[in-house]
Amino acid sequence: MKKTKSLSVILISLSLLFFSTNISAFQKKQIKSILDVKQDLSLSRTINQKVQPSPSKISYSSDHILVKFKSSIPDEYVKATVSSFHISEYKVIPRINVFKIKVPEYSSVQDMLYLMKQHQYVEYAEPDYVAYAYVTPNDNFFNYQYALYNSGQYIGPPGSPQGQSSADIKATLAWEETKGTEETHIAVVDSGIILYHTDLQNKLESSGRDFVNGDFEALDDEGHGTFVAGIIAADTNNNEGIAGVAWNCKLLPVKVLDKTGEGYYSWIIEGIIWAVDNEAAVVNLSLGGPVGTYSLENAVQYAHQNDVVVASAGGNDGGSVVYPAAYDNYCLAVAATDYNDLRVSWSNPGPEIDVAAPGELIISTVPTWYFPPGSVPYGFASGTSFSTAHVSGMAALILSLKPWMTADEAMNVIRYSADDVNGDENPGKDTFIGYGRINMEKALVPIIIEKKKIKNST
Predict the structure, then answer these.
(1) Domains along the chain?
(2) Which of 18, 167, 363, 437 could cross-link with 35 by S-S, CB 3.0 to 4.6 Å?
(3) 224 is catalytic
(4) 385 is catalytic
(5) H or E stretch including 128?
(6) 8 Å CB contact between 16 and 289
(7) What span, in angstroms and rounded, lies between the C-alpha atoms of 405 and 111?
(8) What region, left, alpha or beta, does residue 156 occupy, with left being phi > 0 and alpha being psi -120 to 50 degrees?
(9) How high is the pLDDT of residue 11?
């Protein structure tokens, strides 16, 4: 992937949302997680720490740009305009009609952006930024999944912290209402999914789409997408591994991040559109960054207009809510809580935050090559990426039960059924966890909502 070396270039770095930048806090608590310090499940073996890019860094392609022509301009005028700039290579991203244009050799990204922005037929022109991957079941490691059911147990192997009872998303009672349907698909727009993982191979609707390598096998060569997928819909009640939030729902892998965890916005845009066109009911975006673009917003808007629920990670650097989560009209922006129902300090606050879900020390699936031979393909990690995965799984269960719901209706169920767990300090919707930590029981079992209403009204 080429990056411009010009000092005038604005640099972007969209943090891989599985990585908390508050490393000192982790060290003080002696907590290790699989994706910031790679290790096996027993926490006995530490591998190399993965250095993440600075959240303030901004980078983009040095050889192509994204251009949207005004909808009122006839096609022949658009083609003539493209030809007049001696552009020999371009492709059109469908549905939103954004041109991905290769910059001619005689020019530069900055020059082409300037010229395109001045042209009377152009609606907008922008760089192609780079993103970085920021019923009680009988599964072996379910006892470690405090996010789904927290009895106050130790949340991991010996030496792990102890959770607070009921600091969870109330999954077990919700599963008595629905475990989801195979017809409900969740697109994991990420680094891909390991297609042969024993806890995932039976949950895949297809081998997906790879926009990084241009094929139809979205294999994960980084690890983040496999981790996210396990939280959403790992094979459940199979006497193995972990439980997924959406037991029976299917996963649709969409690869938009490469083996270094990087991906152009154009890949993410195409991934979202492809997922919608291939009948995903939910799109999970556990990635994001500080720069918003019209093209990315158009893609998220396209999903929303087609009544697809989009859940997006709020960010992990304690700063402003990142994009696409910040597109408040079209998606659910998700913050992170911990095993004591407290917002973690690295979870980005902002008025765009809709809800929160557990995101600290979450256990999930990892690629079989992730650890040394003899290790189990599961591990722990922290980040709003994994909070988002819980929300996506919940959205899939809601749409399994009531597939006629619009995206706005499903999103509102998730918002308004949340528990205001920081209500003593910040009553009502706030910038830290939005409406609160999600509650699957209240969202999926109507009698629970009714009882709560009666109680509150008295």
Answers:
(1) 142-450 (3.40.50.200)
(2) 18
(3) yes
(4) yes
(5) strand 122-132
(6) no
(7) 46
(8) beta
(9) 22
| Residues in the chain where the model's pLDDT stays below 70 | 1-57, 134-140, 158, 446-458
Tell me the three state secondary structure of residue 187. strand
Q: Where are the alpha helices (DSSP H) in 30-150?
A: 75-84, 109-118
AA identity, residue 283: V
Q: How far apart are the first and last CA of the chain?
A: 61
The vertex-204 CA angle with 202 and 206, nearest 5°, equals 130
Whole-prediction pTM value? 0.84
What's the pLDDT at 454?
Answer: 41
Active-site residue (options: 64, 197, 224, 390): 224
User: 231 with 244: CB under 8 angstroms?
Assistant: yes
Between CA 39 and CA 231 the distance in angstroms is 18
What kind and span of H or E run contains 380? strand 378-381
Q: One-letter amino acid identity for 395?
A: A
Instruction: Considering the candidates 33, 160, 385, 387, report the single residue annotated as catalytic.
Output: 385
Omega cis (within 30) before 324: yes
